[in-house]
Each structure stands twice: as structure tokens, then as C-alpha cells.
Design a protein that fits this description.
Helices cover 23% and strands 39% of the residues. It is an alpha+beta fold and 119 residues long. Strands 1, 2, 3, 4, 5, 6 and 7 form a seven-stranded antiparallel sheet that branches. A hairpin with a 6-residue loop joins strand 4 and strand 5. The two termini are 28 Å apart. The relative contact order is 0.22.
């Protein structure tokens, strides 16, 4: 398991498909769905998977074809992870693929922290 040099906070947010292929904030959920401290690459994936399942239940019968959950570092707004969910023809919500995290690209601390470490 890859650990981060320092834990860092992430805020999660839900977006739903909008018009013309855009993504919009989900008005029926809070702007910031959750705030979590991330200390390992696995932490971020678990947060995204777990909160995605909760969002799927909360959106239940709403007429949506999908949603995405974004994790951002709150001070810089840097995107550190995301996952998308889609609704199957029978109405069941399923995770589209594995969560994408900055860890997959060797980003183990937010950019702000890396720059502070160099200075």
C-alpha cells in the first residue's frame, strides 16, 4: 500500500449529466457531500466507492442516466479522484469502472504540498 507523505483532506461532490454534454451540480444533494482525511492511495479509492454507493441509494428513483463523484483538495481545488456510476436498463445503479485517482499517476500528495516540500 502506498502511503502519502502527509495526510490531506478531500471534499467530494456529485455531478449529474446536464444539457449539451456538460456536468452540473446535483441540486438534490449538498454541494459538498463529504470531507475525508486521506492517508493512503487505498483510502481515496474506498471513499469514492463507498460514497458512490450511498449516492446511488440517495438518487434512487430519480430520472437520471448517471452521475459522477469528484474528490478535490479543498484549498487548491485540485481534482484528486473521480468515479462514474450509470443506471442499467432495469434501473439498477452500477459503478462504471474503477475509481480514477491521482495515485494512479504517481501523485501521492497534492501539488501544493509538493511545492512546499521543495521550497
Amino acid at each position: 500500500m502506498v502511503t502519502h507523505s502527509d495526510g490531506y483532506e478531500v471534499q467530494t461532490k456529485v455531478e449529474i449529466p446536464g444539457s449539451n454534454g456538460t456536468w452540473d451540480a446535483c441540486g438534490s444533494l449538498p454541494d459538498v457531500l463529504g470531507e475525508d482525511m486521506i492517508k493512503s492511495c487505498g483510502d481515496l479509492s474506498r471513499v469514492l466507492v463507498t460514497q458512490g454507493g450511498v449516492v446511488a441509494r440517495l438518487l434512487g428513483g430519480k430520472a437520471l442516466r448517471g452521475f459522477r463523484l469528484l474528490a478535490r483538495e479543498p484549498r487548491t481545488g485540485a481534482l484528486v479522484g473521480s468515479v462514474e456510476w450509470v443506471r442499467q436498463p432495469g434501473g439498477l445503479w452500477v459503478q462504471h469502472d474503477e475509481p480514477v485517482t491521482g495515485c494512479a499517476y504517481g501523485l501521492h500528495v497534492p501539488r501544493r504540498s509538493r511545492l512546499e516540500l521543495v521550497a
